[in-house]
Design brief:
This protein is mainly alpha-helical. The chain has helices at residues 8-22, 26-33, 49-53, 58-82, 85-100, 113-123, 125-142, 145-163, 169-182, 184-192.
């Protein structure tokens, strides 16, 4: 855990900032703007990049991935620049919660993978790059996006221990548990062998 320099009120404000940043549903916005339909009626009904890809529009999927990652990263970087490491970690957690449970969508959001990766690229670029590479390797091996995400999340704790002074160790545990919780249905399908592979409807 980082040393707490900010007041409780300040941390609450940074949590609100992180949540509002994370709750921007870029997948839904891009699908609407680009005439792709309502993501809730497509594929898994999820608002993330993987489901946007199921519309057949790779540009929209790529933009969703980038923007969902960026909103997590921006929340961290702004909080760190204006307040400190304690605020950055609070904003990071709140951003992931905002993506997973956005108030604008009745608290039914995405699964947080891109935002998770963006958060780590901002918190510590070494851990962020290691998590991204973990996702890529796992995706190349298994061709299952959710399984790659779970591998990246699980390995984030290892990367924090190996590459940093572990000041984010508690946070990475919480973020990882949140990603796993949001993927509970995927985990069940992986176990049963029914989880779709990348590019499969």
């Amino acid at each position: 855990m980082p040393f707490i320099d900010s007041t409780t009120t300040q941390l609450i404000l940074w949590a609100a900032f992180g949540y509002l940043m994370g709750s921007i549903p870029f997948g839904m916005v891009l699908a609407k703007v680009m005439g792709l339909g309502n993501l809730r009626n497509i594929g898994s009904g999820n608002i993330g990049a993987t489901n946007v890809l199921r519309t057949g529009n790779k540009t929209a999927a790529a933009l969703t991935l980038i923007l969902d990652a960026a909103k997590g990263g921006v929340a961290v970087l702004v909080a760190r620049a204006l307040a400190g490491e304690d605020a950055a970690q609070i904003a990071a957690l709140a951003a992931l919660l905002g993506h997973c449970f956005p108030v604008w969508l009745g608290f039914k959001g995405g699964k947080g993978v891109a935002t998770f990766l963006g958060i780590w690229l901002a918190l510590d670029w070494r851990v962020g790059v290691a998590c991204c590479l973990t996702w890529l390797v796992a995706a190349a091996i298994w061709r299952i996006s959710s399984l790659a995400a779970l591998a990246a999340a699980a390995m984030s704790t290892i990367w924090v221990l190996l590459l940093t002074n572990s000041v984010t160790l508690v946070l990475t545990g919480i973020l990882t548990m949140l990603v796993y919780w949001r993927h509970s249905a995927n985990i069940a399908r992986i176990k049963s062998g029914t989880e779709p592979k990348i590019g499969q409807s």
